[in-house]
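> call design_seq(struct)
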């Protein structure tokens, strides 16, 4: 009887451990889903705020120096005009309004190859030699990537 009680209590203990583990796994999964949903909601708010504060696109015949920028993204191609006197921060704000956060994407010029997100955001597009036109590539930043460039 002692052995039988010992064995059956061991089974109950194992069942309790398994039950506790599955409850913990489920709670962790729910927590991850909630965190992902919160991050998506935050990104949507940031995107909306960026779109509402973005200056209007200048007309092609406005008579000022323009930067015609084409963006190659991982999923599509975008194009927009900016004033040459606009700071780099306006270009990055436009990308944020399109859902491409500078924290998640590098903005690369082709020649010379450089990551614009690491440059002074107050520099004008003209000073960065993005006028009259330039094609920029957006490259996803992978978590844990080292700064080898």
């Amino acid at each position: 009887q002692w052995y039988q009680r010992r064995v059956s209590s061991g089974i109950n203990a194992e069942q309790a451990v398994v039950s506790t583990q599955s409850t913990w796994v489920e709670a962790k999964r729910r927590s991850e889903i909630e965190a992902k949903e919160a991050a998506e909601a935050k990104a949507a708010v940031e995107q909306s705020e960026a779109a509402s504060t973005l200056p209007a696109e200048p007309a092609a015949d406005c008579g000022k120096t323009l930067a015609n920028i084409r963006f190659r993204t991982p999923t599509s191609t975008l194009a927009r005009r900016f004033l040459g006197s606009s700071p780099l921060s306006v270009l990055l704000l436009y990308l944020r309004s399109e859902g491409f956060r500078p924290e998640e994407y590098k903005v690369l010029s082709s020649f010379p190859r450089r990551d614009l997100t690491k440059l002074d955001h107050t520099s004008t597009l003209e000073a960065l030699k993005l006028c009259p036109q330039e094609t920029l590539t957006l490259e996803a930043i992978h978590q844990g990537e080292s700064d080898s460039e």
